């Protein structure tokens, strides 16, 4: 009877080791779930950014209006005869 108790005790220790420490343990599962959540959030942000970039590419491909708007906003370009005024906030 004593040897049976010893075998059961060893089996219990082995099972507890696998449950808490070994590969596939509960701690590893929690770490992997957090990692999946982080990757899901990152993918969502990248998907949104790609949608914005895709819209910008389509705007630039469809006509000159998008190109002209970008030139005016980002490069401060003006047409012949136009005057460029730049307003700055006094608070800054």
TrEMBL record:
Membrane topology listed for this record: Single-pass type II membrane protein
One BP annotation, GO: FtsZ-dependent cytokinesis
Membrane-spanning ranges: none
Periplasmic side: 22-92
GO CC list: cell division site; cell septum; plasma membrane
Principal location listed in the UniProt entry: membrane
Coiled coil: 29-56
Topology Cytoplasmic: residue spans: 1-3
Function: Essential cell division protein. May link together the upstream cell division proteins, which are predominantly cytoplasmic, with the downstream cell division proteins, which are predominantly periplasmic.
PANTHER family in UniProt: CELL DIVISION PROTEIN FTSB
Name of the protein in its database record: Cell division protein FtsB
Organism lineage: Bacteria, Pseudomonadati, Pseudomonadota, Gammaproteobacteria, Cellvibrionales
């Amino acid at each position: 009877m004593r040897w049976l108790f010893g075998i059961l005790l060893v089996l219990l220790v082995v099972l507890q080791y696998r449950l808490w420490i070994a590969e596939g343990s509960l701690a590893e599962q929690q770490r992997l779930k957090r990692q999946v959540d982080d990757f899901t959030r990152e993918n969502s942000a990248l998907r949104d950014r790609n949608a914005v970039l895709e819209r910008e590419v389509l705007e630039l491909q469809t006509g000159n209006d998008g190109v002209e708007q970008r030139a005016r906003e980002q490069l401060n370009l003006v047409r012949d005869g136009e005057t460029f005024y730049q307003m700055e906030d006094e608070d800054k």
